[in-house]
Amino acid sequence: MREHALVLASWGDRGLVELEGGTSRECKFLRSVGRALCGDRVTVEWADAESTVVVSIEPRRNEFVRATPRGRKQAIAANLDQVLIVLAPAPEPSRDLVERYLVAVHSLGIRPALVLNKSELLADAELNGHSPLHRIDEYRALGYEVLETSCKGPPGIAALPDVLAGCTSILVGQSGVGKSSLVNALLPDLELQTGTLSRVTGKGIHTTTTTVMYSLPRSGRLIDSPGVWEYGLWDMTPRELAGGFVEFRPLEGSCRFNDCRHASEPDCAIRLAVDRGDIRRWRHESYRRLLDQAG
Asked: How far, in Å, are 6, 147, 168, 193, 226 from residue 162 at the CA level?
């Protein structure tokens, strides 16, 4: 017998799926079918009374990807509505971390939002002069939603439930920014959900290395991904990098050269806009640094 299912977690050649009736079962990924991702819609076939085999993976709307140490794409989740990029005063984000995340999310066709967690620490934080946290209002001015949260006191997590309701969202960010605390605050039944996962699989899979999907109280799904120290981009062309800077888009095709890198080429519409003050100089400088890193 075959059933449709949703992948809640994926590790090695195995995973955990939620069947249409809401029950969870361990599953095996066949090499001929490929490894399913957290968030995939799949068809499973019963292997025995307790486990299933994934026999097909439905086409994905999108994937959330990070780079391997060799600069290759590594997909960790699928079929997302939004990516919530979690920042905090401690650990302080590096200068271009937000831009790397935003470029990646835009290139993947997913909506990004910024979550400023531990916001109660911001007023007294001794931030580096280049810290993205100095630019929070400028990100808002660029059209990005910025949600301020704290798991220690006001403003709490009141900004998150409405944004998450009815959507499939993933929390990403550096290790130590408080993603786990946010997940605990958002999911009153977290222990019940993780207990179910462990009972089905016979092992604790909520670890720092497993991407796991949870059900939210007000509808919607939340994916918690492993923290990283520094998010890196995979190999991108200059056009792909520029596409991740939303203020560059209205000027696409306006440069003198079709293959303009917006670096030192003459009659570059982006650089002229920077000189006029229409594009923030620090954003263009960040783009240039990412361009140099891409080679």
From this structure: 23, 11, 13, 21, 24
Rounded Cα distance between 288 and 87, Å, is 23
Quick check: pTM over 0.90?
yes
Which amino acid would we find at residue 234? W
Tokens, residue 41: 């819609």
The length of the chain, given as a count of residues: 295
Phi, psi of 227 (to 5 degrees): -70, 155
CA distance 198 to 124: 41
**Cβ pair 237, 185 in contact under 8 A:** no
Decide which of 3.30.70.1450, 1.10.40.50, 3.40.50.720, 1.10.10.10 is the CATH code for 238-294: 1.10.40.50
Q: What is the pLDDT of residues 271-290, one digit of tens each?
A: 999 999 999 999 999 999 99
